[in-house]
Fold this protein.
Amino acid sequence: MEVETRIANLESQIESGEFRLNSLLELTRAIATNQSVDQLVRLFEFVMREQLGYDRFLLFNKENTWSPLLKVGLKSKVKEISVEKELYRFRDITVIESSHSAILNEFDIIVPVFHKDKPLAYLLIAGVEESGVKKHDTIADMHFLQTLTNMVVMAIENKRMAREELKRERLKKELEVASEMQKLLFPSDLPSNKQMDISAKYIPRHEVGGDYYDFIPLGANKYVICIADVSGKGISAAMLMANFQATIRTFYSTVYQIRPFSLEFLIEELNKKVMTSAKGEKFITFFIAEYDAASRELTYVNAGHNQPIITNGKEQKLLDIGCVGLGMFDEMPFIQVGKEILKPNTTLILYTDGVVELEDERNCHFELERLIKIYHNFYRLSMEDMNNIVFSKLDEWRGNRKLIDDTAIFSCRFF
């Protein structure tokens, strides 16, 4: 009789070992053939129910937050279980005899799964003794289940990471395309002749930026000069600015050619466009000027932008007449138009807040006074050389700190 018992036990162990090996091989095959998350979960459920005989269990897994990956045979509201509060203290397979937690008392065994001290999953099993198995006799099965659960959860995590990597690659390509599109929107040929010398330099903080400048000839002696900055960063801000620039170009290339309009009209129309596109979530600061080279008159509106500077190399004046930023109100509360007659050899300096608000390692801003001083000290330089000097000084100022914002300089010398 004793021999028969030993043989029966040995046969049981062999069957158990074969079962575990087959289960591991089947799961490994499923992972290797890149089966879906649903298929992996169904396979895990099959092993739990059909091969091990557990018909009440719960598997928690964390993606962004902890949530039930699999719930079988349970009527309780598993959403009431706080994984951080109820389960984080379990680091080993634990048989629950009694617990202060009414929720945990519904279960018999907790199987935690960790990776480098990081909890990946928790398997909670109920009704163990109902299946005719003693709680403490199931520990060997639990170690096997811990291994099986770890394989399933790691496979799901790898799939998630692969999806995230795919998203990052897709976003990277989208950013590259957006960056190239944005470059095409900036003027590629700025004039440098006997009438004027114009140059711009722009460094976005990220692949795409929210700053914009433009130079639009309107005829033999009339030009549009503008600069803008959108609140917020990222692709949405860049796309809003690209749409804004396209709108301006459309107004001057079509509407203006048929019937010239005032700056007041343009500002009102642009405000409507920004409100429609941004829906009040973003706004644009904007400076626009029309320059008549024959009369030397500069007509402008400053819509909440950093005040441009006109200087002769010794004295300067800030251009502050205008209105509030675009997209702040459904209708503009007021619009004022400024006018200046530019004397020969006058420089107009347009810039975005990334210049004057650049911080050094002591958190001090670069500020407007330093920018003006650079233009006065190097006034004889060409505008391209001047812009290079400005950015060189900005680099010296920030030291090892990164750019905190898009940075643009638009320098215009009128002879």
Summary: The chain has a mean pLDDT of 86. The longest helix spans residues 139-185. Residues 2-161 form a domain with the Beta-Lactamase fold (CATH 3.30.450.40). DSSP finds nine helices and 16 strands in the chain.
